[in-house]
Design goal:
single chain; RNA-binding; alpha/beta; four-stranded antiparallel sheet; 14 strands; 22 helices; five-stranded parallel sheet
Length: 595
RNA sequence: GGUUCCGUAGCUCAGUUGGAUAGAGCAACAGCCUUCUAAGCUGUGGGUCCCGCGUUCGAGUCGCGGCGGAAUCACCA
């Protein structure tokens, strides 16, 4: 409609003032609720053609359009805003079209689909997942769904940081202080068991440092010379040398962690197409660096370490190979980026990584660009903000880390308590109830995290976030289940409803507001894919659910006697439920049929 | 100090390519369950959109300069 109106405005200006108008100068938007009309044309930019007051110009254009375009039945001008009223006939046809669209995602397809890699999660294998990982996983998975829905080919990848000094710490502590306990003997989830020994290591290590400092050693010295640290470094060397004993311990403990992660991923409802392990890739990238050196893109220091000079790009010097020839983090990422490009020829490679690594990805792109890899423009750091507690950052030292598994369990428990308190779900089996509690709890958690702009840091208040009222996932689920209930009831009482055909329409403002929202769905999904922001969809779903709830209260749906009006309301309900379902699906939130 | 990001109601957050009187939820107060699910709906109160200057018919939105907060600036990953 907007497009047609634009044409009409162009035509009007041409006819009245004999001037050609640039498309961009014609601004059309929906009329605000408080004013009469459906669409509004902002006339200010057109004054240069009319050389007249905004009011006069609006009048002139308005009357031209009313006289030359039957879909517009009337108009009014307030200040510089020309409000056009669209005829009922047009709306009826429009509703019919909307109601006939079975898949509301079809309009979101992009013209040129791309191959996109989304890398997310990227855990370390020495600790269980925490709240920060939850944000990462939910964002990554949702991006995958949104980009796929727009017709792109999306590959979900996860790169597991399974090697290095941190995992040796857990291994060493388990060897020294453990009594051979395993996940099955202790009844502990594997990742939590390994994490326990990591914490134990840090505790003992700190104690050793304290003793050394008391004995007069300075702190840095103490950190290096503490016996536990020495042992850990020895273990890392053994690991790198492929010592069979260390390798088998490493494999065993990592397998525990993976089993634990898998459980958490499953609960979160996320998965991956390909999982990479750093133990396989940490040596890659050397060849690329050496080639870069040959081409004089990089330079060698006196101590034979290799560097990139990024000062022309406004960045710093960056080390790429140590003097002993070993690789660093950046080297690895260079290697995997090139390898993946060769394998997939991706258009985009999206890294879902916290904003603490902004600099790292800036450097990564700059180096690849310097080396002549033009596809480096397709490397996108999807940078999200930290999750903080009301007291500030989560600190493992202070035990304020919010564990992922604990939080999920807590959300589901709360869902159960709230449901039972409200006296819902009578007549369901215990198994069915548990399934519904799970969906509600997860919706509360996922929605809470996804509704905020990913770029921003967010505050997680353990007491308040477990809210099920207002702008929350459960509210949207509730709205959806209510609609389901309406249709169950309709079926029971034998009320028929025709999905596609509408011949008349009830003139009512509320419905129009709801419709305005409904038709924005494809546009919202597209914008969300463009900005890589699931939050747009989340907030949209809330607005829609809220609008529907008002509609639900203001109008009787099944109790309406006029079959045409009743059918109209049923169609709106049906379309709303479908869009809510799809919107939440894009966020990875499951919808219960009842709650 | 350099770079990047953020600053909107007491709290948590929305706010479309710059458009009309800046919106929700939570918290507070007052109403609404014999009628399709009250996890809901209606109403009241609550604002120097961090500050200043500029661009513009028009700025929460764009530009510049401050102030405040976060992240980062390793031969860690």
């Amino acid at each position: 409609m907007e497009i047609i109106l634009k044409e009409k405005v162009k035509e009007a200006v041409q006819f009245i003032y004999n001037c050609k108008v640039d498309e961009e100068l014609i601004q059309i938007q929906e009329t605000r609720k408080d004013f009469k009309g459906d669409f509004t044309i902002v006339v200010f930019p057109l004054l240069r053609f009319s050389k007249n007051t905004p009011e006069k110009t609006g009048e002139m254009i308005g009357s031209y359009i009313v006289n030359n375009f039957t879909a517009v039945s009337g108009f009014n001008v307030i200040k510089g805003f020309l409000n056009l009223e669209i005829s009922d006939k047009w709306w009826i046809d429009y509703f019919a079209l909307m109601a006939s669209e079975k898949s509301h995602l079809e309009n979101c397809q992009v013209k040129n689909p791309e191959t996109i890699l989304v890398e997310y999660s990227s855990p370390n294998t020495n600790k269980p997942l925490h709240l920060g990982h939850i944000r990462n996983n939910l964002l990554g998975f949702s991006l995958y769904r949104i980009l796929s829905a727009c017709g792109n080919k999306v590959i979900k990848t996860n790169i597991v940081n399974d090697r290095g000094i941190h995992i040796c710490k857990s291994m060493l502590a388990w060897q020294k202080f453990g009594n051979g306990e395993t996940p099955s003997s202790s009844g502990m989830k594997g990742d939590h068991l390994v994490g326990k020994y990591y914490v134990l290591f840090e505790k003992e290590y700190r104690a050793q440092i304290g003793e050394l400092v008391l004995a007069g050693v300075n702190e840095n010295e103490a950190k290096n010379s503490a016996p536990l640290m020495k042992e850990t470094r020895e273990m890392l060397l053994k690991w790198e040398a492929g010592n069979p004993e260390v390798m088998s311990l490493w494999k065993m403990m990592n397998s525990w962690v993976y089993a634990g992660f898998d459980e958490t991923y499953k609960r979160l409802g996320v998965d991956f197409d390909i999982i990479y392990y750093e133990s396989d890739t940490y040596k890659t990238g050397r060849d690329i660096v050496i080639e870069g050196l040959k081409n004089n893109v990089l330079y060698k220091n006196e101590d034979s370490s290799i560097w990139a000079d990024l000062t022309p790009e406004g960045l710093d010097q960056k080390l790429l190979l140590r003097s002993d020839g070993t690789a660093v983090y950046m080297t690895q990422d260079l290697g995997t980026a090139v390898a993946r490009y060769n394998e997939y020829k991706f258009d985009k490679n999206i890294y879902v990584v916290g904003n603490e690594q902004n600099y790292h990805f800036q450097v990564l792109r700059a180096i690849l660009k310097k080396m002549g890899y033009n596809w480096s423009d397709g490397l996108i750091h999807f940078s999200y903000g930290m999750v903080e507690l009301p007291e500030g950052r989560m600190k493992s030292r202070e035990g304020t880390i919010v564990d992922a598994d604990d939080l999920i369990t807590e959300m589901q428990e709360t869902a159960r308590e709230v449901s039972l308190e409200l006296g819902k779900l009578a007549g369901f089996s215990d198994v069915e109830k548990e399934e519904i509690f799970r969906k509600i709890g997860m919706a509360a958690l996922k929605y809470y995290i996804l509704k905020v702009d990913p770029r921003k840091n967010m505050t997680f208040n353990p007491a308040e976030s477990i809210d099920f009222n207002g702008n929350t996932g459960p509210f949207i689920q509730y709205t959806y289940t209510r609609i389901k209930s309406v249709f169950r009831k309709a079926e029971q009482t034998g009320i028929q409803f025709e999905y596609g055909r509408l011949t008349e329409v009830e003139a009512g403002i509320k419905e129009i507001e709801l419709v305005k929202l409904l038709r924005k769905f494809p546009e919202t999904v597209t914008a969300s894919a463009q900005d890589l922001s699931p939050a747009l969809i989340a907030n949209y779903c809330y607005d829609l659910a809220k609008e529907y709830n008002q509609f639900y209260h203001d109008y009787s749906i099944l109790g309406e006697n006029d079959p045409v009006v009743r059918n109209f309301r049923l169609v709106l309900s049906k379309v709303t439920s479908e869009i809510l379902y799809k919107g939440m699906w894009l966020l990875g939130v499951e919808m219960p049929e009842r709650m």
